[in-house]
Design a protein that fits this description.
Helix content: 40-55%
Order of helices and strands: EHHHHHEEEH
Distance between the termini: 14 Å
Number of strands: 4
Largest sheet: 4 strands, antiparallel
Structural class: mainly alpha
Strand content: 5-15%
Oligomer: single chain
Strand order of the largest sheet: 1-2-3-4
Number of helices: 6
Length: 196
């Protein structure tokens, strides 16, 4: 199968974009061209973010821990602990760290709840993101590259029978063209069926 480049009208220099990116492609593409021709990325879960409550609890735990350490270092009542009950000594040494420990537990619990919510939201939006990615990937597979002109293009009727050929597309504009052609050609959330 061949397609004629809309810029130089040479069909012998054109290959599909997936074939142009194959490891054994001849002529090989330079890295600058490869960067613009890579397939659209599949949906991935976003980075899990800390919410405000979690950050506040971590910060307060740090401040209270610092205050507890400073109070134990600067306390001159240490000589009063000689001969005191072991439970009293343990409470005296551990007590100042109780509030930071509780704040730390609260921060961990808030983070776990927030993380669960973020994962649930990603799972809910995944089908729509997957459908959009499939449309973009289908359009990306239909694109062609002219090695002579170093432009991408879509031959006539490659996306749909009623869609005309595209003009020559500079490689730096190719990712935007894939998304735009996908949205214009397949505006519905149902992805196209790839030709066999």
């Amino acid at each position: 199968m061949s397609a004629t480049c809309p810029q130089c009208s040479a069909p012998d220099q054109s290959v599909t974009v997936p074939h142009a990116l194959a490891p054994a492609a001849r002529p090989p593409l330079d890295e600058a061209a490869r960067v613009h021709l890579v397939p659209p990325p599949a949906p991935q879960p976003g980075r899990l973010r800390l919410n405000g409550g979690t950050i506040t609890c971590y910060a307060l735990a740090g401040v209270f821990t610092l205050l507890a350490v400073l109070s134990l270092i600067g306390n001159s009542d240490a000589e009063q602990l000689d001969g005191a009950e072991p439970a009293y000594v343990a409470g005296y040494l551990i007590g100042p760290f109780l509030i930071p420990f509780l704040l730390l537990l609260t921060a961990v619990a808030l983070h776990a709840v927030s993380r669960k919510g973020q994962r649930r939201r990603f799972a809910e939006t995944l089908p729509a993101q997957q459908a959009l990615w499939q449309r973009h990937h289908f359009v990306w597979q239909a694109a062609w590259l002219c090695h002579r002109c170093r432009v991408a293009f879509f031959p006539p009727a490659v996306l749909r029978p009623d869609v005309a050929a595209s003009p020559p597309i500079p490689l730096d504009q190719f990712p935007l063209w894939v998304m735009t052609a996908s949205d214009r050609t397949y505006g519905s959330p149902t992805p196209p069926v790839a030709p066999s």
